[in-house]
Amino acid sequence: MPVRILIWHGYLLGGTGSNVYTRSLARAWSKAGHDVVVLCQEPHPDRYDVGGARVVRPRLDGPLPVFVLDRYEDAQAQLLAQVTLADRARFVEQNAAAVRAEGPADLLVTNHVLLGGPVGAASGLPYVVKAHGSELEFSMRGDAGLCAWARETLAPAQAVLAGSEHVVGVLDELVGPDPARVHVVPPGVDVVRFRPQPRAAALASLLSECARDAANPPGSHDERRPDEGNAERLASFFTGDRRTVLYVGKLSAEKGVSLLVEALRQVDARAVVVGFGPARAELEAAAGPDVLFTGPLEHRHLEHLWPLADVSVTPSVFPEAFGMVAAEAAACASPPLVARHSGLAEVAAGLEQEYPPHLRHLASFERGNTDDLAARLTELLALSADEWQQVSSAARRAAERLWSWEHVAQRILAIAQR
Fold first, then answer.
1. Residue 194 lies in a domain
2. Which CATH number does the domain housing residue 121 bear?
3. pLDDT tens digits, residue range 321-371?
4. Is 193 part of a structural domain of the chain?
5. Which domain does 241 fall in, by range?
6. Domain match, 209 and 268 both
7. Hey, how many other C-beta atoms are within 10 angstroms of the C-beta on 26?
8. Interior CA angle at 387 toward 386 and 388, to 5°?
9. What is the C-alpha separation between 102 and 39, in angstroms, rounded?
10. Fewer Cβ atoms within 10 Å of its own Cβ: the N or the C terminal residue of the chain?
């Protein structure tokens, strides 16, 4: 039976994992026939596919509380721990008022323990809170006041959703919610959009999408947009049949990209590095000529780039709530190789359930260990065509079985309706 669902998200609809999570969940519920409204700060909702969901932007008179400082087109970002109590209260009330204006609803899902918990509690509606992990590690850890606020505002929630057992453990450590109301629901993947493709077709589609990109010249370069000339550079880069390694994510120290750059010196392969961030210049300077940096790419590019990658690496050294890019790579049948810790370890475990027993060790490597990463990469890239196909097909099966958005959306609705 169709229901009315409100999704509150304090940020945008593109870029980071929680943004993708929000728009993907809205799309899945909308396509299932539900009446969905997304409340967020996205200034260009028309750029994103949210199915038939309606997007509402709550008014803000003060700073936008964030966990990691970043630039926003028309919002004043400020680290949550530095936002004054008065500004926090105003932010919560303005967003809660916007939620109330869209009620009543059968389900309200709020993103991030903070500030999703406070907004849900202030809305007066029954609510479910989705913990994403970034708020826990970057803002709440070490801040007793924020943890107490989260504890107070999670208490009335119908349920708390965590993307992995790792996040459950961090929640318990920092907040201590009632374990009976905490549910593990991994993030999802669009397994229809992200799928295996023949190499020639994937490359042609990738180059076509790159050719559509707006100009981004060096003199006025925007780090949040694809580099100019990617179509020509990628066409040249993919000449021949040399093995290809792919990284997709932020270019910052906690993502461990420097480990990959170092490991590639020991591996006979070319690599594509997709993303933006403060470490880009340093990483490019350290990388050899066989590593191509593209700037950030959108899903319209990535759905064609992942099928071209023989291995997709997620080398994060900082705890991750999940590993969305690894799951999306798996859906495209590009075998993921992830650092074995936090939520990434659960992605590895899901892959290992499908991998042939003698190849299960190739799903992960020891966190921070460049030599182990290089060794696993070398072994993966040296697999026979038949063995690589076994791993590739197994990765796709894991994505379909564990991480489809339809499966995720149904689970969350079932939890909320108990």
1. no
2. 3.40.50.2000
3. 888 899 999 999 999 999 999 989 999 999 999 999 999 999 999 999 999
4. no
5. 199-402
6. yes
7. 30
8. 95
9. 9
10. N
